[in-house]
Amino acid sequence: MAQISGAQIVARSLKQQGVEYMFGIVGIPVIPIAIHAQREGIKFFGFRNEQSASYAAAAIGYLTGRPGVCLGVSGPGMIHGIAGAANAWSNCWPMLLIGGANDSYQNGQGAFQEAPQIEAARPFVKYAARPDSVARLPYFVEQAVRQTIYGRPGAAYLDLPGDVITGTIEEDELKFPPRSPEPPRTAAPQESISAALAALKSAERPLVIVGKGAAYAHAEDEVRAFLESTQLPYLASPMGKGVVPDDHPLSIAPARSFALQNADLIFLMGSRLNWIMHFGHPPRFNENVRVIQMDISAEEIGTNVPTEVALVGDAKAITGQLNAALQQQPWQYPAETTWWTGLNNKIEENAATVEQMSQDDSVPMGYYRVMREIRDLAPRDAIIQNEGASTMDIGRTMLPNFFARHRLDAGSFGTMGVGLGQAIAAAAVHPDKQVLCIEGDSAFGFSGMEVETAARYGLNNITFIIVNNNGIGGGPGELDPARVPPSAYTPNAHYEKMAEIYGGKGFFVTQPSELGAVLKEAMATPKPSIVNIMISAQSQRKPQQFAWLTR
Ligand SMILES: Cc1ncc(C[n+]2csc(CCOP(=O)(O)OP(=O)(O)O)c2C)c(N)n1
Ligand SMILES: [Mg+2]
After folding, report:
1. How far apart are CA 461 and CA 373, in angstroms?
2. pLDDT by residue (tens digit) across 260-275?
3. Which of 131, 235, 476, 548 has the fewest CB atoms below 10 angstroms from its CB?
4. Whole-model pTM?
């Protein structure tokens, strides 16, 4: 009879539960878990910091619907991984954090890297457990994986003491639970479907808001069919972009502020009324805005603004129900309304301002000039990772998405530093697609060392683009080391030289005339390349009534 170790059981259980990707850093006591994960066919990516690894694991959950794993050593490794668990918690993405822990017989003795790990993980996870024996490891792995994807997705944590990892058992004594099926797609009661449609018909200025919940649920076909049959104007949340292509005629994205302020009824399709949507409150929203809310989580219903019609369940299933009802009884929001006229006027006005800024060939360049060039060269199915303050805000309006789950950013948690981990996850899931990782110079610095990780695993489909204004929201062109402003970084820092550490190519761009050719070459280069674009520290967003950063 054969003996099997805890590490091997964990790896085999993960694989059986549909885990395909693991990110982390090895050390005592988790090395054997990574080794066995590779043997079981799980793709392991050794990172340079568990924080980035944990962001990658969470992005995998969003992109694939099965959790990515972040593996960290006890104490500091696991603590770094909490960053990604928190990001997953805030974004409602599946991920599984696995932390090594000191041998259980040393608990309380001041063991090597001993820490209150379960307590530390708890507020950010749906499930946290310390398996009590080698034999029960498969049970705990199945529980953890299932918890991340059932109900509202989120993170789970497994705490694995060294003696459980290295412990052994007779293989025959083990029982592996079957793979947990995909979560049930719960539909809404028929009367709620009717109520939602009745509410939409009664609105004068309706607005649909498509969120990343719809993207996660793979509801893109249904959402598009719903919009096209009702002809309702819609807006996407930052990561809801692409569920319906951004160039769709029903998109009123350039008139976002006007639309939010004036809508008398909003239909939230997997989008929340949190800070990104200004809580649904005035002055960004109409005081008396009515709400139809579709969400996987009943607890989310009514948050910040009372909900008139609640559609609790799966976005794909429920939007399908709406479409079926509309087939029975077709209805369209009229094309000739003062609402559409107002929206279209605003779209034209804003598009003209943006177009003007994006044609500006001044040196140093402005954000819009840079983004225009990226927009024009990005393949239609590019996956866009975008983080920074203005780099992200402007990227959001300037860089379109045409497919669901093709945009990743700082998200609901506003986390700087997610970029490289997310880009690596996206490149691993979609090896045939171009991944553009468009980073503010500050955002890049949080996890810049992971360029080496990307190169080491041959993720040559990533191009790193740094929009460099010498700091957090811009910094001075010269620095006195005795008086460094809190937001400043080294002026004209040559971040592109980091490509040299792995024999890649870096580009430093100051002239708008060079930008296009450089971006093309960078995307065609056989290793991940880094394009460092100097822009004006004074470059700003188009004037906003309420910029979130300045409030
Ligand atoms: C983990 C974390 N730390 C700090 C912040 C605060 N913060 C918000 S945006 C930002 C960086 C903005 O600078 P940059 O990435 O260079 O973009 P820019 O606006 O200059 O284009 C920082 C540090 C944050 N959101 N997350
Ligand atoms: Mg910056």
Report:
1. 19
2. 999 999 999 999 999 9
3. 548
4. 0.97
**Ligand 1 centre and the CA of 284: distance in Å?**
24
Is ligand 1 within 6 A of the CB of residue 447? no
**Residue pLDDT, tens place only, 391-404:** 999 999 999 999 99
**Ligand nearest 491 Cα, by number?**
2
Q: Is 365 in the pocket of ligand 1 (CB under 6 A)?
A: no
Q: Is 388 in the pocket of ligand 1 (CB under 6 A)?
A: yes
CB within 5 A of ion ligand 2: which residues? 440-442, 469
66, 67, 68, 73 alpha-carbon torsion, rounded to 10°: -150
3-state helix, strand, coil in the chain (%, to 5): 45, 20, 40
In the structure encoding, which two tokens stand for residue 478, read together?
A: 């010269």
**Among 442, 487, 538, 551, which residue has the most ligand 1 atoms within 8 Å of its CB, making it the best to mutate?**
442
- Atom 24 in ligand 1: which residue has the minimum CA distance? 416
Cβ neighbours around 35 below 10 Å, total: 15
Mean pLDDT, the chain, integer: 96
Interaxial angle between packed helices 190-202 and 315-328, expressed in degrees from 0 to 180 and rounded to the nearest 10: 70
In percent, the amount of the chain with pLDDT more than 90 equals: 96
Q: Cβ neighbours of residue 484 under 8 Å, at least 6 residues apart?
A: none
Looking at the CA of 472, name the nearest ligand: 1
**pLDDT for the residue 549:** 41
- pLDDT tens string 298-307: 999 999 999 9
- Residues with Cβ within 8 Å of residue 293, at least 6 apart in sequence: 268, 300, 301, 302, 307, 309, 310, 311
Cα→Cα distances 373→95, 196, 402, Å: 35, 42, 17
- Can you spell out the DSSP letters for 49-65? -HHHHHHHHHHHHHHHS
Residue 547's pLDDT is what? 44
- Encode pLDDT of 52-69 as tens digits: 999 999 999 999 999 999
The CA distances from residue 129 to 154, 225, 331, 421, 505, in Å, are 15, 42, 50, 26, 45
Task: Compute the half-sphere exposure of residue 136: CA atoms within 13 Å on the CB side of its CA.
Answer: 10
Q: According to the model, what pLDDT value does residue 239 have?
A: 98
pLDDT of residue 544: 55
Helices of type H across 382-440: 390-398, 419-429
Give yes or no for residue 249 having a pLDDT over 80: yes
Going from the Cα of 488 to the center of ligand 1, the distance in angstroms, rounded, reads: 12
Amino acid at residue number 414 = G
